[in-house]
Amino acid sequence: MLNEPREAMDYDVLLVGAGPASLAAAIRMKQLSAEKGTDLSVCVVEKGAEVGSHIVSGNVFEPRALEELLPDWKELGAPLDTPVTKDQFLLLSENKSLGLPHFLLPKEEHNDGNYIISLSKFVRWMGEQAEEAGVEIYPGFSASEVLYREDGSVGGIATRDVGIGKDGKPKGTFARGMELRARVTLFGEGCRGSCSEEVMEKYNLREGVQPQTYGIGVKEVWRIPKEKHQAGLVQHTLGWPLQQTLMDKTFGGSFMYHMEDDLVQIGVVVGLDYENPYINPYEEFQRFKTHPAIRKYLEGGECVQYGARCLNEGGYHAIPKLTFPGGGLIGCSAGFLNGVKIKGTHTAMKSGMLAAEAAYEALTATGAEPVAETAEINPEEPAIDISSYEAAVESSWIAEELKAVRNVHAGFHNGFLPGLLYAGVATHVLKGKEPWTIPNTVADSAKTRPAKEFTPIEYPKPDGKLTFDLLSNLQRSGTNHNHDQPAHLRIKPEHSEVPSKESFPVYAGPEQRFCPARVYEYTDGSASNGVPQLVINAQNCVHCKCCSIKMPKEYINWTVPEGGGGPA
């Protein structure tokens, strides 16, 4: 059964992941089909049970790309319901806060004309627009395998088989995955997508660029008392609890966004280039909520949702080569987030639009009949080259934005105060015109230092009202996986001894702390030769991808579970 042939469907363009980048690309592709008269078939495949179910971002949305893609978005009912009315930026000590005047903030931190949105809700709306334009969208199907043609080019993806038990044997519910073949495949899986990482390695797309660096965002949604709610308020902070001294090298900050209906999105982003293995991003977030400037909003309220997701923070110099034979990388699969703006949706959408334009031009230039008319790909057609997409990004406002702030994150490698001073000079004076690049040559996984150099951090116990233990909060994520399936988190065979011989004895098992879902734990009960053994609770996974980034030697291979599994 496991070796029986898969059913196959052919498309002109396949998009992997139904996020802002892929949906913008799909819509743009159908717009070009209508404008130029050659209709191309477009398919989007999404591992979440519904479009938007795996989108957890707290989001201040810049509508620049949306204005270009759908100028009549207001008439179409785009859910941009809460205009930003006030920006607030605070520097925190343990008990005090200092508000920075608006004129001191870089223009990247000004949110005039932006909106506080639910990105999940917005993505669902984009999906509706795409389907109305003729795009086929298939949620609940995990892209588990990249398909390659005989010439070595990408030819689509295969979805994961379902109905396989933990023992690897087919169950009564077994169904073979499907091949979705395409002339052009665009990967828009988001940060650290498994298929995207595969093609980057296969085609050596990261050659000559800096290692990507990441952050882990931990977020809650609260419903707060009406008298405390200020619809449109955007608040960001730096300082406590992540930076406890002026020379602290831990990078990160917080956000609080007041949405509609007395809802507040609140969270902390911790740079995964931190050195101290005792740092626990989830607990840092819980501690942050106890600050007087923050708790005053939350007291008397109710936490209604929890989630976590990694994001790219490497910026311009960490963007890989964007194209390969038969396709390209878009959105956060490539790493277009603007870390100073703390925004990436607008750049993701623009990248998808540019990729769609390059793909449409390349597909129609071949003279071959589209799959939309023939229902199958011509096997004699050579691999489609969309390399013009790369040049289009470089000449677009995406590159202009990212170049201007390319050194800001790296400026914090020498400490909080030096980083803050450099950020001010870079954004107010240099504005991206500095003739130097601050290098980053080390992956986040290699920046963790031995535990013996640090003191364990004692975090306050949760009170169950303002702060919560992780497993209680995990229930608010809606995370659900079929327990009787092969684990999607797998130790790489070549690193099978890293947990017991390196991670635990040298780094005190940091995966127990950086995972925001308690997937990983070392238990004395299963100790072998006196060394605690790693237990992987894959059913808890919220699909943040942190483990594939921060593990010593990156020893975990993050693969997709059955379609529909994960956060709701």
CATH superfamily of the domain at 8-78 and 119-211 and 317-407: FAD/NAD(P)-binding domain
Shape: globular
**Helical/strand content category:** alpha+beta
Please tell me the CATH architecture of the domain at 8-78 and 119-211 and 317-407 by its name.
3-Layer(bba) Sandwich
N- and C-termini, Cα separation: 31 Å
Strand content: 15-25%
Protein name: Electron transfer flavoprotein-ubiquinone oxidoreductase
GO molecular function, one term: metal ion binding
GO cellular component, one term: mitochondrial inner membrane
Subcellular location: Mitochondrion inner membrane
What can you see in these coordinates?
The protein is of the alpha+beta class and 568 residues long. It has a domain at 8-78 and 119-211 and 317-407: FAD/NAD(P)-binding domain. Helix content is 25%, strand content 24%. It has helices at 20-36, 64-69, 119-132, 194-202, 281-288, 292-298, 345-365, 371-374, 388-394, 397-404, 408-411, 416-430, 470-474, 498-507, 511-514, 547-550, and strands at 8-16, 42-46, 58-61, 82-83, 86-92, 97-99, 115-118, 136-139, 143-148, 154-159, 162-164, 170-175, 179-187, 214-223, 233-239, 252-258, 263-271, 302-312, 323-324, 327-329, 489-491, 520-528, 531-536, 556-558. A hairpin with a 5-residue loop joins strand 11 and strand 12 (170-175). Helix 1 (20-36) packs parallel to helix 3 (119-132), helix 1 packs parallel to helix 7 (345-365) and helix 7 runs antiparallel to helix 9. It starts with 7 loop residues before the first strand and ends in a 10-residue tail after the last strand. The mean pLDDT is 94.
